[in-house]
Amino acid sequence: MHDKLKKVGHLFLSVLIALVLFFYATTTNYKNSITTANTTKKVTESETYTHTITNVPIEMRYDNENYFISGFSPTVTVSLTASNRVILQRESDESTRTFSVVTDLNGLASGTHAIELVASNLPTGVKAKLAPNTVTVKIGKKVSKSYSVQGVITNNQLAEGYSLGKVTVNVSSVKVTTDEDTMSHIDHVEAVVPDASNLDENYSGTATLQAVDNQGNVLPVVLSQDGATLQAVITKTK
């Protein structure tokens, strides 16, 4: 009788231990599942995407009625980062984006300034990195003046054994707008055809107008028109 009770006791203890081990294993697996799920969720939530956009225009805010600005690149490269791919794609597309790159020049005196660029109106959750993040801008009082136009064909544009005769342009003068300092350095406005070469007969084509100093350096200006028709007489050298 004593042996039977002893066996029953052992059996009960074994069952109890098995139950304890079962519940422990089940609880541990549940906790591990919750931890794994939370970890996966955090990784998913923290995943980010980056898209780099080139040639984003810079919006210069200034008094363009009275001032002229020059000396800066008109575009910038922007790297956008976000965890939402849909928003990132929308901002990457020029036709649907809401952000813009701006800088405010109002209140600055004439001269050369290093200006910080800012990505404005970025959607929530989107970050932007600009390259470059600053630009150098020359600000000056806006002035205008009319200059006569000179047609230019250089000797190295002629074929060997040919010489240049009369050069005419269908535009006699153009209005030049720039800042006071630049205006003081303008020597003349010329009409050039940089793509013309090895000329061995009379030439007629579209020329580009540009303002230059007395060294031939092209100056930053706005012209009342950008192009003209140039005609040149080319003769064979005897």
From TrEMBL:
Q: Which residues cross the membrane?
A: none
Top-rank taxon: Bacteria
Query: Which Pfam families does the protein's record reference?
Result: YbbR
Q: Secretion signal: which residues?
A: none
PANTHER family associated with the record: CDAA REGULATORY PROTEIN CDAR
Protein's UniProt name? YbbR-like domain-containing protein
